[in-house]
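WARN retry 2 of 3 for item q-0093 after timeout on previous attempt; input resubmitted unchanged.
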Amino acid sequence: MRTSIINKIVKAVIVVQLIVMATSCKDYLNIDEYFDDEFNIDEAFNNIRNMEAYMWGAAAEFNDEARTIRSNYTPGPMATDEAFNGLTGAGTTNIYYGMDFATGNISPTKFGGLNQWGKYYIIIRKCNLILQNLERPADMTTIDRQRIEGYTRFIRAYAYYNILVDYGPPILVGDEVLNTNETMEYYDRPRATYDEAMDYTCGELEKAAQLMPADVGLLNFGRPTKGAALALVARLRLIHASPLYNGGAAARSYFSNWTRKTDGVHYVSQQYDETRWAVAAAAAKRVMDMGQYKLYTVPADEKTPVLPANITSDLDFYKPYPNGASGIDAFKSYSDIFTGESVAAINPEIIWGKSAPYINSDLNQGALPPTLGGWGRFCVTQKVVDAYLMDDGRTIQEARGDTYFETVADLPSGSTFNDLFTEQSRSFSGYPLNAGVFKMYANREMRFYASVGFNEAVWQALSSTTLYNHTAKYYFQDLDGRGGVSASSPNYPITGYVIKKWVHPYDAKNGTGARQLPKFYAMIRYAEILLSYAEALNNLTGSHTVQLDEKSYTLSRNTDEIKNAFNLIRYRAGLPGLSASQLANQTEVQKQIERERMVEFLWENRRFYDVRRWGIYEETEREPIMGMNPDGATKEAYYRRVIPGTSSFLTREVNKRANWVPLPQDELRNLPSVDQNPGYN
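OK item q-0093 returned
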C-alpha cells in the first residue's frame, strides 16, 4: 500500500451524504469502488447548502483542541516542564503521547496519536476543492460566496498553522487540487522554508480575516471570527520573530546544518531580522485596536480579600482596575474563565473558544482525587508551584523567611517542623483554605489557588450532598495517596500537585446529586495578545514602521506601552505591575514575561511552544522534574522535594530534535525531495 501524504491528499473521497471524506486504510489510489468522482463533485457543489456542509465537514476533521493530555493530537503540557504523569508506554499503545514525546518514545515510525500530518493535508485538499468550485452553486449570493471563501481560507490556513507549529515547514500546495492516479514523480515536491511557510500561512489568514464575520453570535459559538484569524497571525508573527527562528545563537545551534537537499537553502534563516519583532507588535496591536476584546473581570464583593498593604514598587497598584488592581476579585476574575462559571460565548477575553466536554470527561477526571472518583494523576510540577508569586508580588526567594516558609531554617530560631503549618483557616472569594496547610501554600497569588490542587486542599464538590468539601490528603497511606484507595493502580499525584484549573466548586464525579458544569476551552485569549505585544516591543532597539491593512504602525521599545499591556495581566491577578527599574532593563522584562506566560497560560498548550521559540528548551528540560515525596507517610517524610519515579521509563530525554514531531517515515520513502526534521534521520 502506497501511503505518501500527497497520495492521501488526492484520494480524499467525496461522499454525497453530508459530503464526508472517506479515509479507509485501503489503497488510496484505488478509489473507483467508492464513487464516481465527477458525479459526486457535482452533488457536493451544486448548491450552497451542500458546499457549506462540505466546508464544515473539512473543519470537523481537526482534533478537539482541548484534547492536549490524554489521546492527544499535540505534544502538549505533558511534553514540557509544566506537567507530569506517572504513566508512559510504548508509542502507539500509550494514550499519553506527550509523555512519550518527552521520554523519547516518538520516532518517524512510532507516533501514538501525534501523527496528524496526513489529516491536515486531507483538510487542505478539501479546502482547495471548495475554492476551485466557489462559482458553481447557482443559489449562492456574493455575500455567501465571500463568507464561505473566508471560512475556507481560514480552515486551510489553520491546517498549515498546525503543521508549522508541530512539524515545522510544510509542503505548500497553494490552490492546486492535485490530480489522481499520477506517477510518484508528479507528487514529489520539497518542503517550504520556514519563512516561506510563515508568510504564506499568515497571508492566508489575512485574506480570510477580510471576509470573515467579526462576531458569530451565541448560537454559533466555536466558529472562528475575524478576530481569531488576526490573533493567529499575531501568535505566528511572534513565533517567527523569536530567537529560535530568527537567526542568532539559538537558530544557529539548532538549524545551522539543516538545508534543503534540492537547492541547499537553509530551512530556518540564519540572519537576525529585528523588523520581525515590529511586525509581531503591530499584529498584536491591531487586535487590541479592534476594541472588541478585553480581560475578563469580576467586581469585588465582601468576600474579596483585601489587597496587600505597603506596595511601593508600583504607585498605581491601589487604583481601580484597569489602572490598578482595586475593585475586582482577582480569584474569580481568573478562575471563572475556565470553570464554566462565566458564559464563554459572551466572555470578552475569549477570542476563539469552543465547548469542550473532554475537559470534564478526561482532564478533570484525571485531576480529581480518587476519593471523589478521579484518577488524581494529572500533575503539575514543583517548578510551576515555585513560579507563582506571593500575594504581594514577591518571588518565593524574596519572601523566604517572611511570608514564605518551606523548611525549619526559614522559621524563627527555636521553631519546630510543626510550625511549618498554618494555624488559622481562611476563606476568600468562595475558596476555602484549611488550617494546618503547609505554609509553602499560604499567602500565594490568586492564580495559584485557582489552578493548582495541593496536599490538604479542599475540593468543594458542592453538587454532591455526600462528598462535598473533601480535603484531599496525598500522604502515602491516606485515601488519595499512593497507598490509598487506588494502591493497585497509578492513581495518585506523583508530584504532589494536580491541575485544578477547570474544576468548578460544584463539580463532582460521584456522590448523591453529583454533576459538573459544562466546560469550554479557549484556543486564544486576549491575555496572550497583551503579553505578545509587550514581548515584541521589548525586543526592539530602534523605530520601525509597519503597514497592516490600511493602517501604519510606528513601533519602538516604548516602556509605557510595555507597562500598560503587561500590567493589565498582573492587576487582574491582584499583583503589582512592573517597577521602573524592571522596565529599564530589557532582560528583566523578558524574564518577567516568561514567568507570566508560564503561570497565566498553565496547561493551555502554550508552554511547549514558548520554551522552544525562546531557544531555552534544553535549559528548561535539563532541570529535573521535582515534587513532593509520594512515598511519605508522615508530614516530615512527605514534604521533601524529590525527583518523582525511579524507573527509566520516566527519564525525560533532552534532545534538539524534540523541537518538532518527526515526519512519517513513509512520507520520506515515497517523496525523495522531502527532508526529515533535524535529529530524526
